[in-house]
Specification:
Chain lengths: 271, 208
């Protein structure tokens, strides 16, 4: 299991959102209360949350070439960065790497929101509800950070989202095999989409979710280059130290803890 | 096999259509000298159509049965200028009796909605997510409007015609409710099988 990776082929995704439902079913997460489609096109809910660990984003249809309109649909979840920002800034060391997957230990999490603030993909979210599943296990803890755990907690051979994908847009295999597959697919795609790219080979020391895109990553809101470099270890240390100083006055109240973290973060920037 | 053929041929000639050679052979077997084939596959417009039939002078399939009870309830394109159609989404199944009780699916498609183009939305002053009222001569429903690039106006016989597309999974009961699309649909059937002509009709749309 140690070198497994996901492959998201956005050219094959048909937007059925079975992955979003399968994830909630396997991990015992509740449905969100929505009123109407929250994002562009059918995107619903608007973004990842503590109870939505994977999410399908529909981008508005691109009619710049009227003879061939293209519609991109992207599956988004935690990218499991090799050098993860969330792991570096967590003041309680609640985030760790298990078999290469970035996991949050909710028993140590204090809900300070460090990971929420530092993740450039806006993946981890602090939950404001508690959810108990049908057999009495607490799946979502109040005031704790949650995100995709690559089905490592409620463990299974192939993660639920990959297992359910009807169009084989998602696949799960060893990292070298996934990269080889992605490059072969990209070579195919270059004829149809000249600007097609692979995302996740270098960002944050290599992501565990490799995404094949029809265009440049920037077009889909994915950070590249300087923006996708892991946080400086020295700065992370500073934020952590500053936070420990402030958190003594927070008296364990989550709201104050979050405020303390934000203060520590802004102070560290000036240092 | 022969018994089946006899039964088919006993149907009224103008209510069936067959392949030309097959028809000739079957007619000879029944003892008819002249071919008695039904109308050939032909293009007809739906009962409620904003345009004329460009292929021949007959607008509606002449073999269609129009019930007396429904005769008066067809809208004209002057009052109801937009084409409407209904369809499904992957998240719900049929009228939604099962799927509209599942919170995970209700999260994805929570309410009755219709899809309209940017040009129609601009003309009617509708923004994405607005409540709209869709009216046909048979009834009216309320829905949320999704303004999207995926719906484009049609060029029909030289005139730009707008379309309103809507899902029909919603109704009363269950956890997620909405107005029924089939309140709007016409009571007319296909000429051969009487399958309801629910996928092509005329409506008007207003912002609530």
């Amino acid at each position: 299991m140690s070198d497994k990776s996901f492959l998201v082929d956005t050219t094959k995704c048909q937007g059925c959102r079975a992955c979003q439902v399968a994830c909630k079913q396997w991990n015992g997460l509740p449905g969100e209360k929505t009123d109407f489609f929250a994002g562009p096109e059918y995107t619903n809910p608007a973004e990842l949350s503590a109870i939505t660990w994977n999410h399908v984003v529909f981008f508005p249809i691109d009619r710049s070439d009227p003879s061939r309109p293209t519609w991109t649909i992207m599956h988004k979840k935690c990218y499991h960065c090799n050098e993860a920002n969330c792991l570096r800034v967590c003041p309680e060391k609640a985030i760790s790497k298990v078999d290469g997957w970035t996991l949050i230990d909710q028993s140590r999490c204090i809900g300070c929101g460090a990971c929420v603030n530092e993740c450039v993909y806006h993946v981890p979210k602090v939950s404001d509800i508690k959810h108990v599943n049908d057999v009495g296990q607490t799946m979502v803890f109040k005031d704790k950070s949650h995100k995709c755990n690559a089905c490592m907690v409620n463990q299974r051979e192939v993660p639920a989202c990959v297992n359910t994908c009807p169009s084989y847009a998602l696949s799960f295999s060893s990292r070298p095999a996934i990269i080889k597959k992605a490059k072969a697919r990209l070579a195919q795609l270059k004829q149809e989409f000249p600007k097609a790219s692979i995302y996740g080979l270098e960002e944050f020391g290599g992501l565990r979710v490799i995404t094949i895109l029809k265009d440049r990553p920037e077009k889909y809101g994915l950070p590249t280059g300087k923006k996708a470099e892991p946080i400086d270890m020295v700065k992370a240390e500073e934020i952590r130290d500053m936070y420990h100083l402030f958190s003594t006055v927070s008296m364990g109240i989550p709201l104050l803890k979050r405020a303390a973290y934000r203060m520590a973060r802004s102070m560290a920037k000036h240092v | 096999m022969n018994a089946h053929r006899g039964r088919i041929l006993r149907l009224l000639p103008n209510r069936v259509w067959r392949t030309y050679s097959g028809g000739l052979m079957l007619d000879r077997m029944e003892g008819l000298t002249a071919p008695a084939d039904g109308p050939f596959p032909e293009h007809y417009e739906p009962m409620e159509s904003p345009t004329y039939n460009a292929f021949n002078s007959q607008k509606l399939n002449p073999a269609t049965v129009i019930l007396d009870s429904a005769r008066g309830e067809f809208g004209d394109p002057g009052r109801f200028p937009y084409i409407a159609t209904s369809y499904r989404v992957t998240e719900h199944w049929q009228a939604g009796a099962m799927t509209r009780n599942l919170p995970w699916l209700n999260e994805l498609v929570p309410t009755m909605f219709c899809e309209i183009s940017f040009t129609l939305a601009e003309r009617k002053g509708i923004k994405n997510g607005d409540r709209v009222r869709i009216v046909s001569i048979r009834g009216s429903i309320e829905a949320r409007a999704m303004v999207t690039e995926r719906v484009q106006p049609w060029m029909i016989n030289g005139r730009q015609t707008e379309m309103v597309g809507m899902i029909w999974h919603f109704g009363h009961g269950c956890k997620a409710t909405g107005d029924e699309c089939n309140t709007l649909t016409p009571n007319i059937g296909d000429a051969n099988t009487m399958i309801p002509e629910f996928k092509a009709f005329l409506v008007d749309i207003q912002k609530v």
